[in-house]
């Protein structure tokens, strides 16, 4: 009998995992915080509740055999509880413990000899002053937990604004760390899939464009020299090994002007940088995440076309929304619209994405961007 998948989290990533599970004949249960989350709206098997509640976790555990993540904010302690209920965890609690604390994550990577920016724990704003003298200004200040999409970070330009920056991120109650400022040329990313059987595959290295800290565009393949792509792939695979990753691991990286690749962050779940794979690859990141968790043969992660580009739909205003707003995008030929069915738009919030594929990267990107522009304009003005 096919093992039952449990998905911790009810957002758009869980929704797309569900969509990938259906053609495989895999039964999946979602644990969502609220009944109107994107995955909760379409899940046949659903547990609604707070994953901090042991009774809710036990209700979820009773319906599943294997647990995968929609986001890493659940916390390693919850995975340990599920492990005591004899549920297989993909990834394991040890891996999540390393990754959820970003300072511990970076230290583990550095200990494995992998390239990361210089980092230090921040106990007091005065620590930043010392680091500024050592590294030079500016410094990137980050929360150790729960940061995403540019949230939980602050650029510290000098010692004068050190305390204000720390307090803006919740110091002293919220633990912080700092990294040396990296003047990167671009950002790269890839996905490493490691099955419970030991099989492994790696997706194409992509370029991500994040003008406000939120990913806007993903270009596949990344248009850089073969040696850069090879090094990024090598580093990503080594990172997965260093944290004992199982299932899917997203590896975000910086490319410096000197051609050096540094690891920025890891995420032990499907990732925004891999959404293009639904139409762009022979096997999507979501399908391979399920295959890996079940120990089934992994699918081909290679590109089906010469180029694929994903553009995120970012809400330009705050308002209630439904799927009627996607009509302008549907009028564009040669694009694939993914609507997350979030009921409330907030400025800058990811509410969907559009992918285009083809032979030329620039033409493909223009096609996807045009469809996104039309949809966002309609949301903003109410007129097509």
SSE diagram, text form:
Elements: E1 5-8, H1 12-21, E2 28-32, E3 45-48, H2 54-61, E4 66-69, H3 76-84, E5 88-90, H4 93-100, H5 102-111, E6 119-122, H6 125-135, E7 139-143, E8 153-156, H7 162-168, E9 176-180, E10 184-194, E11 200-202, E12 206-209, E13 217-220, H8 226-242, E14 247-256, E15 261-267, H9 277-280, H10 285-294, E16 307-314, E17 319-320, H11 327-330, E18 336-339, E19 344-345, E20 350-358, H12 361-381
Parallel strand pairs: 1-2, 1-4, 2-3, 4-5
Antiparallel strand pairs: 6-9, 7-8, 7-9, 10-11, 10-12, 10-14, 12-13, 13-16, 14-15, 16-20, 17-19, 18-20
Helix pairs in contact: 1-10, 3-4, 4-5, 6-7
Provide a compact summary of the structure.
With 384 residues, this protein is of the alpha+beta class. It is built from twelve helices and 20 strands.
Strand proportion: 25-35%
Largest sheet: 9 strands, antiparallel
Q: Can you tell me the CATH superfamily of the largest domain? A: ATP-grasp fold, B domain
- Average pLDDT reading: 95
**CATH class category name of the largest domain:** Alpha Beta
Number of domains: 3
